[in-house]
Amino acid sequence: MHYVATKICRASEIGYNGNLFGGAMLSWLDEAGAAFAGYLCRTPNMVTLKMDEVQFRRPVKISHHVRIYAKVHKVGQSSLTINVEARRFDFVKEIEEIVCSTQIVYVKINEEGKAEPIDEHLRATMADASLYDLMQRF
Known about the structure:
By secondary structure, this protein is α+β, with helices and mostly antiparallel strands. 25% of the residues lie in helices and 36% in strands. It is built from 3 helices and 5 strands; from the N terminus they run E-H-E-E-E-E-H-H. The chain has helices at residues 22-41, 120-128, 131-136, and strands at residues 2-8, 46-51, 65-75, 79-90, 95-108. A 5-stranded antiparallel sheet has the order 1-3-4-5-2. The longest helix has 20 residues, at 22-41. It is elongated and about 45 Å long. 24% of the residues are buried. The model has no long low-confidence stretch (mean pLDDT 91).
């Protein structure tokens, strides 16, 4: 998986049980996935079509650093299905623990908000190349 972003849990994002609100985590995952999809498709015009089931495996507390990773799962005509994973970084143990993961489908749109095909060359490259190869294009 490719590193996309780091988020730091703030007090304003904590619920009654002392954990990060699930909605805040979903927002982080969606934002990171969309940025990754837009980067690969060379456009800022990517919208979320759907997010699959998310299972919250570990809590996130105030000041925890959460690293978000992504990789291409499937390339469609105008869409990308991205696997997105959040990992809590433990500074003492120097390890990452998976907090949650999901699959998100993003669609490339035009200025009118209608689906637009992803460039054929980019689609072929994403379908055939490793993530390392994808990132070397830029």
